[in-house]
Amino acid sequence: MLDVSGIKVIEHDILIVGAGGAGLSAAIEASGMGMSTGIVMKSLLGKAHTVMAEGGIAAALANVDERDHWKIHFRDTMRGGKFLNVWRMAELHAKIAPERVRLLEEWGAVFDRTQKGLINQRNFGGHRYPRLAHVGDRTGLEMIRTLQDHGIHQGIETYMECTALDLLKNEKGEVSGLVCMWRETGTFIIFKAKAVILATGGGGRGWEITSNSWEYTGDGYALAYEAGAELMDMEFTQFHPTGMVWPPSVKGTLVTESVRGEGGLLLNSKGERFMFNYIPERFRSETADTVEEAARWLAGEPGARRPPELLTRDVVARAINAEVKAGRGSKHGGAYLNIATQRSAEDIKKKLPSMYHQFKVLAELDITKEPMEVGPTCHYFMGGIRVDADTTMSSVPGLFACGECAAGMHGANRLGGNSLSDLLVFGYLSGKNASVYAGKIAQPPDVDQDQIRSIVKNATDILNRESGENPYLLHEELEKICSRM
Ligand SMILES: Cc1cc2nc3c(=O)[nH]c(=O)nc-3n(C[C@H](O)[C@H](O)[C@H](O)COP(=O)(O)OP(=O)(O)OC[C@H]3O[C@@H](n4cnc5c(N)ncnc54)[C@H](O)[C@@H]3O)c2cc1C
Questions:
Q1: Residue 293 lies in domain
Q2: Which of 236, 265, 402, 454 could form a disulfide with 382 if both were Cys (CB 3.0 to 4.6 A apart)?
Q3: Is residue 476 part of a domain?
Q4: One domain for residues 343 and 416
C-alpha cells in the first residue's frame, strides 16, 4: 500500500485556493475576523490573472456622472447578462461595489483622479454612465499590489507554486482539507481546514485563441465537481471582441476595451464604421445611429447617445466575425481599431500606456499613428461553481467559491469592469461567510488516509506508465475542438 504517512500536514481555519483579486479579498476578510488563513497558488504571489486586468473596476460611485446609482448598475448588469444572471448576486454586487472600491483606496490604491480629486471613472461597453474606476490601463496591477500589501501585513500565510490536486472530505461529507503538490519539487503537502474557498479563476486555456495566461485551466471547476459540488452555465464563455490578430505569436492577446471607451473607432477594410449596422433593437434607444451623434457624445454633449462601438462584448464580437465572413475584414482577418484619429499622441500614451507599449513591442506598430488589427479572443467564463448568492457556499458544506470560478453573477455575458468589482464584493462575502461557518466548528478536522492515498496515486500514476494518452496532445486537441465550435 502507498505510504503517505510522511507527507507534511499544515492546519488552518480557512484555506483559500488562488491569490487573484477574489482569493486575496477573501483572505483579508477571513484573517481580519481572527481566522488562521492560508492561501495556496499555482504560481507566485502577484502573478495571478487579476494583475493583467487593464480597463478598470465597475462601481456606481457617481463621481463623473451624478445620475449613476447602484440600481442602474444592477439594470445594466442584468441586461448585459441577458437576464440569465442570479439576480440576487447582481444586486449585492451593484450595492456593495462602491464601498469596496473606496476601501481599496483607503488601503492605498492610487486611482486616476477627476479635476475635483475624486476617483476618476471611464466609459465601458454596456455601462450607462462612466463607471470604471481605473489606474491608466494597469488597474489590475494596482489592485493586486494593494490587496497583497494589506493581506500580508494582516498575517495571511502564503504557499506559492503549490498546486491544489483534490479536496478532502470527512465522513459527514463536509470539506476537511486539500492535497497539494509543490511545483518545484513534485512533493506533496496536506492542508487541514475547517472551510476551503476556491478562487481559481477561469479556464480560457481550453481555447486556441485566448487572452488568458497558462494558469487558467479550469482547476477550480474540476476540484469542486470531483468533490460533489454543482456546476452551472458552463456553456457561457465570453469572447472579447478585441484581441490582437497579428503577428501570429501573440494572437489573442487582449486589447483593452478602454481603447473604445476613450473613443476608438472600429472600421472594416472599406473604412466603414460597421457597428452602426449591428445595433440590436434593445439598445437602440441609447445608442447613436449617426456618426455625427457619436462624435457629439465623445465631445461630451449632454443628451447625445453612446457610439455603437460601446455596445456589449457579445454584440461587438459577433459584428466583427460577420464583417470578416462577408469579406470586409482587415488584412489579417479581423477589424481595424483606430484611436490615432481620436486622441492626441500625448493622451494615448497617458491613458493607454500598456496598449502603446504592447503594440510597439509585439507588433512594431505605433497606435498613436496607425490603426490596430483586432478580432475575438476567448476571455472569460461566466459559468462555474453554483453558489448561494448571500453566503457563496457551494452545495458541498464548507466549500465556498468566489471570483471567476463561481457562476451566476454575470448571466450569459459579463460587462467589462464587472469582474474586478465581483472579486472585491464576493471575495469579501466568501471570506466573511467561510469564517462564520468555520467559527462554528470546534474540533480540528479529520482527514482520511485512504482519500490522500488515492489522490497521490492519481497524481503519480501518469509517471509510472509506459503507454497511454499524452496530456499535452489531449490539451491541443481540446483547444482545436473548442475553437471550432
Ligand atoms: C488581459 C485581461 C484583462 C482584463 N481586464 C479586466 C478589466 O479591466 N476589468 C475587469 O473587471 N476584468 C478584467 N479581466 C477579467 C479579470 O481580470 C479576471 O476575471 C479576474 O482577474 C479573475 O480573478 P480571480 O481572483 O477570480 O482569479 P485569478 O486572478 O485568475 O487568480 C486565480 C488564482 O488561482 C490560482 N490557481 C488556479 N488553479 C490553481 C490550483 N490548481 N492550485 C493552486 N492555485 C491555483 C492561480 O495561481 C491564481 O493565483 C481581464 C482579463 C484579462 C485576461
A1: 240-378
A2: 236
A3: no
A4: no
In the numeric block, which cell numbers belong to residue 157? 500565510
Residue 48 beta carbon below 6 angstroms from any ligand 1 atom: yes
467 within some domain: no
Residue of 240, 313, 343, 410 with catalytic role:
240
Counted domains in the chain = 2
| pLDDT tens digits, one per residue of 386-430 | 999 999 999 999 999 999 999 999 999 999 999 999 999 999 999
| 1 domain residue, yes or no | no
Which distant-in-sequence residues (6+ apart) come within 8 Å of 346 by Cβ?
A: none
Please indicate whether residue 351 or residue 89 has the higher confidence score (pLDDT): 89
Which of 260, 343, 386, 414 does the annotation list as catalytic? Answer: 260
Determine the atom of ligand 1 nearest the C-alpha atom of 134: 8
DSSP 228-267: T--EE-TT-EEEEEEEE-SSGGGTT-B--THHHHTT-EEE
- Residues 248 and 196 reside in one and the same domain: no
Distance 219 CA to ligand 1 centre (A): 12
Q: Which residue has the cell 507566485?
A: 44
Say whether both 334 and 398 belong to one domain: no
